[in-house]
Structures are given as C-alpha cells and as structure tokens.
Amino acid sequence: MQRWPVLLFLAWACFLFFSGIGLFTSGFLLMRIELTNRSSCSDPLAAPAWAGQGVAPGACWMPPRVPKAVLLIIDALAFEFARFDPAKARPRPYENKLGFLHQLAGSQPHHARLYRFRADPPTTTMQRIKGITTGSLPTFIDVGSSFASYAIAEDNLLGQLVQNGRRVVFMGDDTWDGLFPQKFFRSYFFPSFNVKDLHTVDDGILQHLYTTVDGGEWDLLIAHFLGVDHCGHKHGPDHPEMAKKLTQMNEMLRSLVDHLGNDTLLLVAGDHGMTETGDHGGDSEKEVNAALFVYSKTPLFGAHLPEVDRFLHSYSLAAQDLPAERLRHLRELFSAALEEHDRLLAQVREGLPASPELEARLGRLVGRFQRYLREARAVCLESWARFHPLRMVAGCALIAASCLLCCVASELAAALDFSYRSRLLYPLLWGLAVAAVLGLGHLLTRQGLDLILGVSWSAAASQLAFFWHAWGRRGRRAHLAGGQPPVASASLWQRLRAWQGLVLPMGILFIRCCAMFSDSFVVAEARVAPFLLASLAILLVGKLHWHGRLTAPEAPKQPPGSACYQKESWQLLCLLAVLLACLRLSGLFHQCREEIPHCQPSPFLAPLSSLQSTQAKNLFYLLCVASLAGLVYAVQRWLRHYGNLNSAGPLVLFVRWAFPLVAVWIACYWAVTSGAEDTLGKLQELVQVALVGFPRAVYGLASLGLLLALWTPVTVFVKDSRESVGPIVTPYQGAPSSQADLQHVIPQIYRRMQESLKSQLDRGHRRATVAAYGLGSVYSATLVIVLTLLGFLLLILHSERMSFAFLLLFLEAFVLLRIHACVVSLAGDAEPFVVPWSAVTAWVFAATQFFYSTGHQPIFPAIHWSAAFVGFQQGHSTHLLPAVLVGANTFASHILFAVGCPLLLLWPFVCEAPNSQRRKLKKELREELQEEEEPMMEMRLRESPERFSAALLQLGLKYLFVLGVQLLACVWAAMILRRHLMVWKVFAPKFLFEALGFMVSSICLLLGIALVMRVDCAVSAWFEQLQPR
C-alpha cells in the first residue's frame, strides 16, 4: 500500500486550495487606510467664534468647558437598558433598573441628558473602542483582531491628552492595555475575555474607583465595566442575573455622583447594544443602539455651543484619491448647511420669537446636516474598504483550477497505472522552481516580496504541470488504443454510464451553489441544507426503484405483474424514514439571524443554568445524561457486535473502562455548571476547582485515548485453536512402579484420543487454525473509537442540551453509512473500491446541516465565545488556545464528518452479509460453520493494497472537490456581489466561515486517511507477528 504518496498528493491538493483562498482574501478583505499624521496646537484653523475670549494656558484651539472628566463605559449598555418607563407595571429584567439616570435627567434638565448612541458596525468591543477614541470607522476585517488587540497607530484622543500633559487613569477591561500601551498615568487592568465571569472586572473597578476619584490625581478617568456584557453572553438580557447586574451599576452611579466635584463631567456610555440572545458583533438595530448619558453639577445645556468648520481638509490632504466630484458635492452640502445655520443663529440672537416657520427651518437644517454626515461617512467607507479585482479573479481561477484538478485526479486514481511521479513529483518540482526564481528575483532586485503572490504563482505553476502531464499521457493512451475500436467503444459506453450517475448528486450540488448568490437563501440555509440532503436521499432511492433494483427476480411460481421486494429494500426504506426523522429533529437546535423576523432561537442553545424551574432543570439534566450514556452504549455495543471488544489490548481496555469514566466526568461538569451561582455558598471554591478539573480531566483522558489509537490501533482478539504438537504423554515423575506408571499414562492417552476424535468430528478432518475476532472491522473500529473521543471533546465545549444534537449527529451518520451500504449492495454492478459521488455529496451536506443544528450561523454574533473558557476559568496566557477551542466548537460537525470520511469506503465491506442459509442451521453448529463462511469484510481491502490506496486517494479528492465547489460558489458570490447592500452582512461572513470550514475539513480529512493508513501499517505488523505462530 502506497501510504506517503497518497497523503502527499492530498496535502498538495489542499495547499492549492489554501493558496487560492489566501490570494482571494488579500484582494477582498483589505485593511483600511490609517492616517499617520497627527493634530497639534499649531495646526492652522479658521478664526473661531470665541476668538475674543482667549485660550487658557495649556489649552489647545478652544477653552476647555470642564477641567476633569469621568468616562464610564458599561459594555453592551443598550439604550433600552438605560431608558426608564414609569408606565410599565411589570418591567422585564433589563428594564427600569437604571432609575438614577432618569432621576437626574428629570430633576436637573440643564445638567443631565440621555441620548441614543448609534454604534458603527462591526459591534465588537475592540472595534468600538477604536471608533470612540479615534473617531474613525471600524472595518469588517478588524473583527478578527478581537483575539489580539494591536496598538492604535493613528491619531487618537488618549494620545492627544498624554501629549498635552494630561493624566489619564484607567481601570477595567485589559483590551485597552493592548490598544494604548504605556499611555496611562495609572492603570488597573483585569482579564476580560472570560464571558462566564460576571464580577471580577466590575468588583476590581469598584475597589479603586471612589478612592481614585477622591484622590484627584487625574484629568481623565476611564472605567470600563464588563458585567452587563458578560451576563448577556452567559444568560441573555431577559434573566434575573441581568437585573442584579444593572441594579449594581445603578448603585455605583449613585455613589459616584456623590464623589464628583463641581468641575467634573460624567459620561456614561455603552460601546454597543445587545441582541435578544445576548450577542453582538453585527449591525442589527439592537446591536447598534447604545446609550449615552451626560451629567455635570454645573449647567451644560441651554448655552450656545461653538462649532468648528474643518470639513474634510485633513483627510482629503492625506488621502489624495478621494473622488473630486464627491468631495466637491460634500463641500457644497456643508457650506449650504453652515450658511443656513448662521442665518438662523443670527435671527435667534436678534430675539425673534419662536414660530412654526422657524421650527420648520430648524428641522430642515438638521436634515441637511444629517444628509451631509451620511454621505461623508459613505465616502470614507468607500475609500477605506477597497478591493483588488485582479487578485480576486486570480484567486477564483486558482480555486476553480484546484476543483478541476481534484475531479481529473479522482478519475485517474481509479486506473491501476496511476503514476505518482508524473502526477505529483513533476508538479512539485515545477512549483519549487517557480518559487526559487521568485526568491532569486527578490534577492537581485531587493524589492519587497509579497508572500501570498509568491505562493500563488508556485501553486499555479504546479497546477499547470499536472494538467500538462495528464494531457500528454491521455494523448499517448489514445494513440495506443487507436487500433482497438471495440475496447474503445466499450470504454466510452462505461464512461457514459458513469457520467449518467453524476447527474443526481451534481445536480443537487449545483442547486446549492446557485443558492449562494441569493442573500435570502444564505440567510435561510439552515433549512435549505436539510432539504437538499433529504431530496438527495429520496431521489437516490427513487432511482434504484426506477431501475428495478429494489425488487427481487421473478420466481417461477410468482404471478405475472407482481413484484416482490428484497429484504434489503425494506431495510433501505426504513433507514430513509429514520434519516428524514433525524433531519426533522435536528431543526430543533437552530440559531436565529436578525434578518429573519419573528424568529426565536432554540431553547436548547441556552445552558441549564438559565432555567428558572428546578424541576425542568433536573429533567433536562437527566435527559442529557441519558443521551450521553446512550452514545457510549451504542458505540460499545457496535464494537462488541463485530468482535472488537474481546482482546486485552490497551485501546480495548480504554474503550471498556475510560469511555464510561469520561461520560461520568462530563455529567459531573454539567451538574456543576447547571447549579445557580448564588445557591452554592461556601462551596464556591470547590465549585471553581470542579469547573477547571472536570473539563481538563476529559481533555487529558480523551487525548490519552487518541494517543493509544495511534500507538496500538489493532483491536483484534486472537484465539489459537490449533492442535498441540507436543508429546502425547508426560513422563511419570514418581517412584518407579509399573502400576503407578500405567495409572499415570492411560488417562492421558484416553484424554488425547477423545480430543483427537472430537477435533476430527467437529472440524471435518481439517487442521484447526488461529481465529481472529474483529479482524473484519479493524479499520472501522479504530475510526469509530477516534470519532467517539472527538465527540466527547467537542461535546463538552457546547452547552449541556447540545448532547441531544450530538446524539442525532452520530445516529444520522450511522444511517447515512447504512444507506450507502444498502445502495452499493442493491446496485450489484457497483465497483466496491469506488465510493459514488452521491455518498460523498450526502456526507458533505450532513456536515453543513449539523453546523446549523449545533447552534451555529455564519455570522460573528453567533460564535460561542464561552467555549474558550471551558476548563480555563482564569483565562489564557496566549491567544492560540482560546482560538482553537472556539474554532473546535464552531466547526465541530466539519471535524467529525471529515475524520469519518474514510468510513464511506470501509462501511460496505463491514456490512457484507454471510450466506443466508446459515441462519437456518442449528444453533449449536452456527459458530463452527461461521468460520468457514465468514465473509472477509475489510480484509478484502488487503488483498489488493494498490487499489486500497487508490480508493483512499480517490475518496479524498472527491471530498475536496465537493467542498471546493461550495467554496468556489461563495467566492464568486462575494466577488460579483461586492457592491451589494448585504455584502458585509451576508456574503462576506459566509465566505469567511466557508473558507475556514474548508481548511478545517481538509486538515481533518488528511488526519482521518492517515489514521486508516496507520491501522493498515499496524495490521501488517500484526500479521508478521502471527506468522511464526
């Protein structure tokens, strides 16, 4: 079996796809322009309206209104949280809790005011901090920097304050430390990324807030509270914990106002809003609506506020590529609105009474300024977020060529003369040669080398080499086959029949790819994917019925016109019914998008701790534990049925004892997390230890199982039933005596005669052999064990009630495999070493379907950030581990189905049924006769190792092709619709999630195929050890 060439070929194909993704991304997701110039007091300005007042020493451009300011950022403080409605008799948990703000605004209207603050998307914390401090607009690609905050290089508010000698004190979210390093006069940072921690940051701020305010050694004090945001992520806004947290913020504000001096300005702001599920990151109405409260003990409102006429001079001077016509239009809008403002201001100063005409003019003036702001924002967005069309087209072409390469190579892999030298070695040499030329040119010219472009050129060269050699060998084959028309015609007929079988799966795949170009279908893909999978399965069964594969051959005594269905046909129909039921039930675990009105997210997505009823919580907990126990029992039952739990090997012992232990630890972790925090009392420290200990124990034990699966993957039990070749009798060791010697020897002779006669009668005069139990499913057994271990690891990263979804996932995968085996068996003329396209397509569709059925959506607000802290309650020292945990949670279905992809090749061999006449024999003879009629099952793969390796290669290429075609459709949709209204809301996130899903799936596919080859290597070693025996 050629192991390394197959893995290298698949890895090379993945590299080609990765190169296309990187090239397209470099042209589609560009970073915005950041201005490097900074403002200073010496910048020339138009003569301000307060020129006669003079500027105080240390001030810049204008006299300061207040010498000190306190900025309180309550993360995710939505406007609905701050608004107070006395008419509501029964407010929701997040309503009417900040009553102190209402009290101040009502009793001191000239001192306090509440505003609705509109946050620019994406509404993630780091981007909102950038927007607040720099005045710039965040961009879509910056969302990925939420894991790692990079220092702000452009001009910002904090940098100006520090530059002018102001003392800035900060306390709270440690994200500010990464954005503004060494900028604070004094700072108190607290870990912020653990969304399950509601109190650490807030309590840390309260320990220093009042003493710092009273100390007076500050000019600007910033406090960033996170409890409200984390409570939304953990419980949602409509939860009693949210009421407690908002009440705490209300009491904090009441105490803080008492400590403020008369010369201090208080700003209370939310950086963004919150959806009904407590998430944020998108641009829905609830996410962009935040609160802004302004208060000072000196009057703020009612006096004239001067304005500055700066227009876009600084930006237009730095970015010379702004459209001249648009810039001229904006200047005209601003000038006209400013002239109207001056006229109205002059009339007001003359003392003219208010009139409806004046109010109407004022309303039109506000509309003009709003129009100017909207159009200026649009111009900035267009200039900051640009595309590189050439790179996007090249990336699409590279991905399309990779799909074509997988399709062509999968057809060539079926040929026994598949040459890895011409198909793999020559393309790799071409790619390396191009990379060497580019590197040499970089050294000679001393110009900057774009790594993405270099890798893309190398990938394109290797693709061209592959197609060149494939076309050349095709021409030589056609020349050799020119004198044999019958063979050529037969080959053509077989090829036509093979292409006819592609119509159904490729047609369904084409429909799915076309749906990628519609934002409505992308939004509703959680319902489209199960529908396409069900359609593919039903049409496949209908096709078998159309060709008469479901009916048995007519018997001599059978009435004409009557059809008798085979037993496998009824089994196939039952499996189809179970598949449709699984698809229906999986829709219960859906996540909502804000584009779908009146959609309520599945209650199964919420953790058990969010349930108020103790009885309901206990009931769901028992059901979750039962589903987990059912999964363990089903896996062990399957392994025991095929004889893979009989040996005493390390992996078998691990499955026997560690699987239940892992399930118990997961159940204990669920029990701890489902308990209410305020009812634990003195056990809080023990609970914190359990929250860390149980997940890490699961991680460690599951990792140990994976290592055992790699070390000793053979789960075969050997029973040596051969006759003994030693002496018939053993010599008598006692005192010499003829009578004693006879009494010792005769029983041995009699016993040996009995054994010999019994052996001849039972085995038909043939010599007994070594019996190996579980050898026919040795490949599948290891894969099933590894998939179960991965399922444990992925399950603990989800909420408790997702155990139902994972049980459905394994059940649906089993049903799909059984349907595939039945279809292969009923087809009759199907090649056993070739997995049909319909099975591969259905397997990919199932992975997509369960992406949605595990509570995910291709949008950033739907990411389960809490997975990063399962077992790591105190946070992380690096960003790699939380990114891996969140990625594993998001792409759990992709991981499981990609690793389990080789089962599509193995399962029809596992399901080989022995002769049906064996069932009619007597029970006592079945075990003996089974040894003679036992099917070879997966050992048939070892009869032709070259075909086995070619089948694995072909299966991997088909899987990459189906994934690549879906990725190509997303790429085309994002490129063609890049100016679409919904590009950053629908198409760009879909492309990113599809690209990441493809990368995860391709890597896991390589791991799954590598695991099969490791088992094959271990089986070969096992046979070598067995031969001397």
Entry summary:
This protein is mainly alpha-helical and 1029 residues long. It contains 35 helices and 9 strands. The strands form 2 sheets. Strands 2-7-6-1-5-3-4 form a 7-stranded mixed β-sheet, with helices on both faces. It has a two-stranded antiparallel ribbon with strand order 8-9.
Task: Give the strand order of the largest sheet, numbering strands 1, 2, ... along the chain.
Answer: 2-7-6-1-5-3-4
Question: What structural category characterises the helix and strand content?
Answer: mainly alpha
Q: Which percent band covers the strand fraction? A: 5-15%
Enumerate how many helices there are, as a single number: 35
* Large-scale geometry: globular
Computed CA radius of gyration, to the nearest angstrom = 36 Å
Account of the protein in words:
The protein is globular and about 105 Å long. The two termini are 25 Å apart. Mean pLDDT is 81; it is low at 46-52, 143-149, 303-311, 478-490, 736-740, 742-746, 764-768 and 914-933. The longest helix has 44 residues, at 983-1026. It is mainly α and 1029 residues long. Helix content is 59%, strand content 5%. The chain folds into four domains: 68-297, Alkaline Phosphatase, subunit A; 304-386; 398-475, no CATH class; 517-551 and 563-718 and 773-921 and 934-1026, no CATH class. The protein is built from 35 helices and nine strands. Helix 34 (945-976) runs antiparallel to helix 35 (983-1026). The protein has a seven-stranded mixed beta sheet, with helices on both faces. A two-stranded antiparallel ribbon has the order 8-9.
